[in-house]
Amino acid sequence: MNGFEAERYELHATPTYRFVPDRRDFFKVIGGGLAVLLVLDASADAQESGGAGRRGGGGQAMPQEIGAWLHIAESGAITVYTGKVEMGQNIRTSLAQAVAEELHVSPSKITMVMGDTMLTPFDIGTVGSMTTPVMAPQLHKVAAAAREMLLDLAAQEWKADRASLSIEDGLVRNKASNKTLSFGELTKGQKLAKTITPDARVTPASEWKVAGHDMRKVNARSIVTGEEKYTSDMKLPGMMFGRVVRPSAFKSSLISADTKGAEQMPGVVPVHDGDFLGVACDDSAKLDAAAAAVKADWKTVPQTNSRELYGHLKSTAANAPAWQPIEGDTHAEATYNVAYIAHTPLEPRAAVAQWENGKLTVWTGTQRPFGVRTELAQAFGISEDKVRVLVPATGSGYGGKHTGECAVEAARLAKAAGRPVKLQWTREEEMTWAYFRPAGVIEVRSGARRDGTITNWQFHNYNSGGAALRSPYNIPNQIAEFHGSDSPLRQGSYRGLAASANHFARESHMDELARAAGVEPAAFRFKNASDPRLRAVIEAATERFRWGRAEDRAGQGFGMMAGFDKGGYVSACVELTVTNGAVRIDRIVQSFECGAIVNPDELRNQIAGGTMMGIGGALFEAVDFENGRILNPRLSKYRVPRFSDMPEIDVVLVDRKDLPSAGAGETPIVAVAPAVANAIFDATGQRLRSMPLKLS
After folding, report:
1. How confident is the model over 602-628, as pLDDT tens digits?
2. Architecture of the CATH domain 3-225
3. How would you class 208 by CB atoms within 10 Å of its CB: exposed for 0-12, middle for 13-18, buried for 19 or more?
């Protein structure tokens, strides 16, 4: 559970709501005089950092000097610095829009420097949909303060009334004399040492001219032409190529290793460092043969399998639920299961490491460059000021690239070889040795009156996490608890964290309780939704979908859901067809409200992308494992959504310029599975309670 969720829980608190973590780590992120406490429970800690615990420090205040964030060269070129990273979610564009809005310049004049631990301010990471609600307001303030400073400098230069000055397109204009001074002439390329003052007027969303409007990706041309450079494209003088020699099962310890065969191969450097084995080669074509030449004996331990998973999670729970009596005329009770799934990013992990004069530089695709810097410093026993991490363009992460294992491995190989080393994980390594979205078991008991009013709600999540644990509906007696379990597989953050699991269970159960009470599903939700924002997205989705007015045909089913996570409200309606046990999703309408919209076109893309990804978790994706081995570690065996699986996706945006902008990278994905499950029941009468949803 992150701090923004904790804050909302307080606002929507119910008398019996409880969150039961095993332990908590605390990170403070302070900016603009506002202290936001980020709380990570045991599961969220595992999710946010791949099970590696607290990394990257915390408690660091955002710098208050304008120059830490923004620089204006004598030429007038504007450079903006942020520790956030671009992984395809288009924050390079949206953050440029924020700065351009306040400086009254074209975004094309802004260069974003992102994810460089030597140049950018500390950042906890590109996680939790925090870029838009935290970093965008910060850069609005920075740019607004810079704008006011430029006006002050021009007023001093001209000895003019400040009220007679205006800013547009990189120039300050004296309306009385019609003289102009460029930004560069005013700053003379010097660091902007003034502090970010709270009185600088930030443009309200209702007046946005750059933000709040469609804008093409600032680096769109380089992406489509192939000019964009990723870690895997990097070449350094004298660079070698690396491969890690891995055991055949998890939880293995190295008994012995024989590297003589690899040592005899020209251009190959074998590396044996504790339990770490690998090779560095002067030619990538030698990697397979060199790795095979290293002979290793590993000790393994017996482990469980995917068939026994849910019983294992229940039996190893840290604390048992305290069930309370259920009131009401109608009762419902059910258990829901969620499988482990892999992130399957387009780009598997990659890193390039270089040692020079006792200092380490690593280029890698990570969501937490400062966290990876800490990992590297700890791994090699050096101070963090001797480590620099840079994040090139990165081929997606979905929460799967929080940790720095690939960076540490590349650095180990480079240190032993005495030359830079590029390490690229194979697809099979990515789907075996990376962490997975947590599996989970969720038990729900509920009650309602004859008129459809929910009277009781008890919700117990085992292992998958506490994100979006609490129901957004108006329920007077609600208990929502998370119970940590022993996870057989390494688990960590995945797009939406546990919100996908918790929404699947909750919104499936809402339908079950509605049907038990004899109330139509949409009407049941309206009956119990007092939050006007939640009601607004339900209305938007059902109206666009024409809920209840579609023609029925054989095998056809309709389902819906509604929810809230990370500041965003979502509702989805699904139409599907079941033929001979096969599910075909025909149409999805999803409405989404995340406050003031920053870039409508890219928001639609985010929602559509999250919807497509959600289809995989809903219908296909599951990690199969046995005794410490992944049995489907390649795309030929692990089913992800295909072009042929894509339905018609209709996105309805609800723009609230009166509310702060929230992030949209995660919440849309949670809508798919429950709406699909409810539609399958509508079509077949069979209630599926395990993701992925498989008809018997």
Report:
1. 999 999 999 999 999 999 999 999 999
2. 2-Layer Sandwich (3.30)
3. middle
